Amino acid sequence: MTDSNSEIEAQPQANEIAPEAVLAFIWSFAIELHSHLKRRPRPGLDSSLESDLSLDSLSRMELLVRLERHFHVRLSEQLMTQAESPRELIRAMIAASSKSVAAQHFEIQHHAGLESDELPDSARTLVDVLNWHAQHHPERVHLHFYDEQEDATPLTFGDLRSGAERIATGLRADGLEPGQTVAIMLPSCVEYFFCFLGILIAGGIPVPIYPPMRMSQMEDHVRRHAGILDNAAVTSLITFDEAKPVALLLKAQVESLRRVTTFTDLDRAFDEQPDAPIGEDNVAFIQYTSGSTGNPKGVVLTHQNIIANIDAMGGALEASSGDVFVSWLPLYHDMGLIGAWMGSLCVGFTLVLMSPLTFLSRPSRWLRIIHNHRGTLSGGPNFSFELCLQRIEDEDIEGLDLSCWRVAFNGAEPVSADTLRRFQKRFSQYGLPDTAISPVYGLAEATLGLGFPPIGRGLFTDRVNRESLAVHGKAEAAADDDESALEVVACGQPMPGYQARVVDSAGRELPDRHQGRLEFKGPSTTSGYYRNAEATQKLFNGDWLDSGDLAYIAAGDIYITSREKDMIIRGGRNIYPYELEEAAGDLEGIRKGCVAVFASTDSRTQTERLIVVAETREQLPATRTTLETHINDLAVTVIGMPADDVVLVRPRSVLKTSSGKIRRAATAELYDSGRLNEGSKSVATQIVRLIGSSIRPGLRRIRRRAGEYAAAVWCWLVVGSLGLLCWFAAWLGPTMETRWYLLRRLGRAAVWLTGTKLIVEGLSNLPSNTSFVLVANHQSYLDGPLLALSLPVTVSYVVKGELSTAPLLASFMRRIGLSFVERFDRQRSLEDARKIRATLEANRPIGYFPEGTLMRMPGLLPFHMGAFVTAAEAGVPVVPVTLRGTRSILRDESWFPRRGSVRVVISEPLVTATGLSDESMRFREAVRLRDAARMVMLENCGEPDLVEHQIKTEPASAAKTSGR
């Protein structure tokens, strides 16, 4: 959070330290160093010099020099390592200038410079956020709600606070005690917000559930929600008059449920009682996922979880208080509750909310409201985009202008590239930007968001070989003329601070473009499922969480292929329901979005049968037979095999979740129990084939797993044996050239023995008659050895000084000419810098990994300045080298190597300007060299740029530094 938005024009006089001017000076320096920071809010006095401003030790030293010159003060060199924020720098400058008045002014500015649209760092809970808004701008409109009659109701922050206080009073009067759970079974309405926040103010825990949609499904609704309410030990249920009969049925089945009430019953005069004490680690609400009724899974979400996830999503969307979020999403669904409403509360943008029923009946109203309110953020599940294509006529949206819509996110269910292309084509004539379409990925266990694409990228897909993915689990690129290719939509990259990986059935991480279970972790991940230890245990794999989705990762993007439990294995092939469901839904006579494809176990053979259930209004036997034939033909075309059974059912027979997802398992239960309107058909002719096909996948998995373990053991045997020989070679070689000759020969033997394919490009770009500074990206612990054996010249690589205390390792490094650099002791650091300079002057190249550390997730981290400052001072060229593929072979935090190929690209040298006598000019030249080298590596590494995200490496990773 910033401390002031005002730009300071006046410059301080000599020995006068104006804190706001110092902060502006620091910000200007940071922007000079990292131009992408211009798009971020200006930092505050307590911002981190390292993580928020990306100033490494050399950059901070340059900053101190400039501060001394500009403000005429003398500062201690210890500030280079000790100062962590602008506040600490300013205090040191004030002490140096002995101006107590300036010190007092500094403290006053810290408290008085806050703008009304910026949340303070002290807002740790949703109630804190509400109170801050209500205190600073009670008359400001928080949201506009459009009901089913299309009447808009504005809600101010002051009204939101007072309404929530009244509900809290009513709940306390009804006997609610802190920590008890309260279910909210309301449609989208203004009262929903009062009830949710009122529960929190009273010390309760909200449990959102969706209201009954149709009386014809009352039994299913009660059965599902009775299990949820019982698991949550709900004591009170807030509903509306029309749903009271269903609520009373729930009360009869849930032992803990003592009170069924309505908003009107609870709306009482505020009793002036203080808010219940809550902290950031308290539960903010329990989000129940669409699991089975027998094992309800309530995701526990704390205030910290929610605020952390909203902060990350806001950064990924580049959201600000100037945005307008238009939403039709139900408030009992996490996209509507967290993404739309809580996001607007925490970020401060305006929310325009409409009834989901209005959207379903007249989707043109959604686009019309975006037009009227100049909405910038909006979206929904894939079916909402398809609904617009089917239901909206041109005359419904005449004169529409959607040019304001900068992010149209699509998530919560499988994303169809075809749907989004048609949506883009249809509405581009109404101004919809080509860059607006944004497929995203998230899940309740991460609070909401996990993967977001870069802003402005638009739809991005991957065409893969269908057979390779289905049989071998490899997402190999399909040929251009492959008509059967599978198109998978990229659902974004993990947000800053989050990580994702793909693992096999044994929990081992897979390389890029290999399908497996998607796991994740980050600052907003749940602690588990409420009162469900068994499900919680299955959720976690160490500190990683299982998403339940099958996916692969390529170039940092997440590609979702299926829900793991929905995937069907037939004849050694992995079958994904989504494609066949979408294709069948396009048939005339079949209801779009009302097709379920699932596996049903044959009780006699215990093998899986492929079942297709599709809704239709057709009644003529001949027409129904034709539809069944078309669906079966589609199955052969789309998935390569016929369905075992095609069942045509009446409308609303295929069960769905509250967000419109197909409930395949629940529909399969109806099928297995014979409760669909048509019985199952015999599959006697396929029994022999099914029995045989069920054996092959198991044998293939066993063979593959055994091969992977054998390859991993062999790799470590080779590395261990040849590594020992390398150690002896370093000690026995009489000269440096001899040692490196032996090391390269042993290294190439290791590459050959492990089956690693090493490709080196651009050797001719290495300078032959001058020293140079080599810089390379850092993906894996393999980078150093592979880089060393790839180059025909001996390079003295720079490593952190802490390694010099490891006896055996340090002695080996010294024998092969590596240079140690002290990072914390200023005097020793200067001495080490002089030694490096002497190495260059002796016509020997120096090598750096400017990222300074490595991480398991794909992406190029921010660069430290050491290598580039060295090159600028010595006037030698910089040679960028890009490694690609080492991360997939051996990732950080993993000891399980995998076979793969490594590409080493040596780019043309970057010429360094000479004759720069001024220190500032040399530093600017170092910045230019850094940016140019980074651009080259981004072009060749095939990974995303993480500078934009300013990712903070974990403390455990910080110890893995391989250079300055």
Describe the overall structure.
With 964 residues, the chain is α/β, with parallel strands linked by helices. The protein has five domains: 19-112, Non-ribosomal Peptide Synthetase Peptidyl Carrier Protein, Chain A, CATH 1.10.1200.10; 126-138 and 155-310, ANL, N-terminal domain (Rossmann fold), CATH 3.40.50.12780; 461-562, Luciferase, domain 3; 568-682, 2-Layer Sandwich (GMP Synthetase, Chain A, domain 3); 756-958, no CATH class. It has 31 helices and 35 strands. A hairpin with a 2-residue loop joins strand 22 and strand 23 (557-563). Residues 1-15, 99-117, 678-694 and 949-964 have low confidence and may be disordered.
Rg calculated over all Cα atoms: 31 Å
Count of β-strands: 35
Enumerate the spans where pLDDT stays under 50 for 5 or more consecutive residues: 1-15, 99-117, 678-694, 949-964
Number of helices: 31
Amount of beta strand: 15-25%
Mean pLDDT rating: 83
Domains counted in the coordinates: how many?
Answer: 5
